[in-house]
Structure formats: C-alpha cells, structure tokens
Specification:
2 strands
Amino acid sequence: MGHPAVFPLGLPEFFIKLFTIEGDNVLDPFGGSGSTGLAGYEQKRNVTLIDNNEKYINVMLDRLKDCH
C-alpha cells in the first residue's frame, strides 16, 4: 500500500475490542489505508475515517468497498 505508518490489523482490533462495545462509534482522524475501518467493521462498530491525502483515501475506499 505504500503508507508510511503500516500496522497489522490486530492492533486497531485490540483497542476497538478493549474500549468499545458492539454498535459504538470509532473515529480515526488519521485513517491512512483503512485498517481501523476494517477492524471496526469486523467488530460491528460504526467507523469514521479521515485522511488529508487523496491517495490514501482511495486506498481506504478500495479496501472498504465490500463493508456495508
């Protein structure tokens, strides 16, 4: 993906499980490649991702296109 701050999906998943319950809202103001969004979707959370780089927004959208 080329993002400078890549981390495993398990990292946001751990914190989402630790601090939220199903149906809660999760905000990631540095959405990057969307890993927090994927983790939140898998844990049935409502996720809002923000990024200021169009390249990563497109990566994020591509990775999350099957999440509804």
